[in-house]
Input
Amino acid sequence: MKPELLALAAELQQQQRPFVVATVVWARSPSSGKPGSTALIEPDGTIHGWIGGACAEPAVVRQARDVLDGGEAQLMYLGPEEELGDHNRSGVVAVPISCSSEGALEVFMEPVIPLPRLIVIGHSPLVRTLSALATALGWSSTVVDDRGTGSGYEDDIEVVTSLDGMERLGIDGTTPIVVATQGHYDEPALEAALATDAPYIGLVASAKRGETVIGYLRDRGMADKQIERVVSPAGIDLGHVPHREIAVAILAQLVQLRPAWVGSKSRPVVAPKTAIDPVCGMTVEIEGARFTTEVDGETFYFCSPACNTASGVPQTG
Output
């Protein structure tokens, strides 16, 4: 992969943005894509790099959306329709390309999906246990230890030492927050959490303490709609248990709820509308189509000027 694509891949991961790495692993001339050709494809169809020409690229971009939805790597064969049966095996998606050449490609497509992410506010054994458990589960963890030193945590746990620093964490509708300040600064921590788009804001506190904190927010004029976002006490109810079990109860609740948060983002951008080229049968994206013909008020879309010409009607697009 070219250095600029490596740098971009690192940047997209840092920004928690999903993408697909598409790499040509085999090619038959005269295909314009060559073994090793690589592209990064974002959910909206934006492509960075080179994967092939006008016949291959649209099909690869469309398949990239499905790969992101499924979350599993996939091998894609693109070639003449009469060859598709030879590539009908598990793990391979065979797609026809009806260009005039006899070229063909195999493209390996690997989704890069951001890790589930957890923000924990506070400084206590519970905070360390919860952040460590989340990391062990494959999540990324960030601890907000307001006015702390940032020490005492595993190396793979990010630590922010100011509530103001939360603004730079890119918290979105898939990033839960757990407030475990344990009476030290519950109220400002909750206010900072409620200022984000977090889908879950859990307060680690007794029922009585939780009512007091929520009453404070209400007295400060915070709307009930906002206050209702607070889950107090946080976690599945296990009764009075030690902090390690509390951490497990919270993480279990997050795992249970997470599918609802990410479900609406499984396809971040609606797939574009498409049409079938009536000459060669290829799929053509309607928006931005270069070659179109209108007959009796109906618009036909073509993959190339050759197909447009073969239709026998002058190009209008």
Summary: The chain has a mean pLDDT of 87. The longest helix spans residues 243-263. Residues 211 and 232 are 8 Å apart (CA to CA). The domain at 117-263 is CATH 3.40.50.720 (Rossmann fold).
